[in-house]
């Protein structure tokens, strides 16, 4: 057996392990927060939520949007496809990077598959400049 053969096998095994390990968490649901936030929990100030966009509060599993000036909506931040946390809000959609699902900032409806259902609405209360869970 040539002297380089064990090294080549080692390198190939390490590369295969790295490839499998690196992909093992892709698309897996992110862990849930330790506890569900209670009603009255302040999420944000109204000035923090951009018109036509939104902000993720992953630790609270909530995304708050402002589809039009002065109209605030809230949805779960857990994608209905495989339970990943959505990753961003841009161009009028709430986006899940795990598999490409997109949801409307207006009503949480699915605008791009593979998500099978809309994001569940969360009840919020806007009082003055404060947005809280209702």
TrEMBL record:
Task: Provide the cofactor list for this protein.
Answer: [2Fe-2S] cluster
Q: Which UniProt keywords apply?
A: 2Fe-2S, Disulfide bond, Iron, Iron-sulfur, Metal-binding
Boundaries of each Rieske domain copy? Answer: 41-133
Per the record's keyword annotation, is Nucleus included, yes or no? Answer: no
Quote the InterPro entries the UniProt record gives.
Rieske_2Fe-2S, Rieske_2Fe-2S_sf, Rieske_Fe-S_prot, Rieske_Fe-S_prot_C, TAT_signal
Say which domain of life the source belongs to: Bacteria
Q: Which GO terms describe its cellular component?
A: membrane
Could you tell me what this protein is called? Cytochrome bc1 complex Rieske iron-sulfur subunit
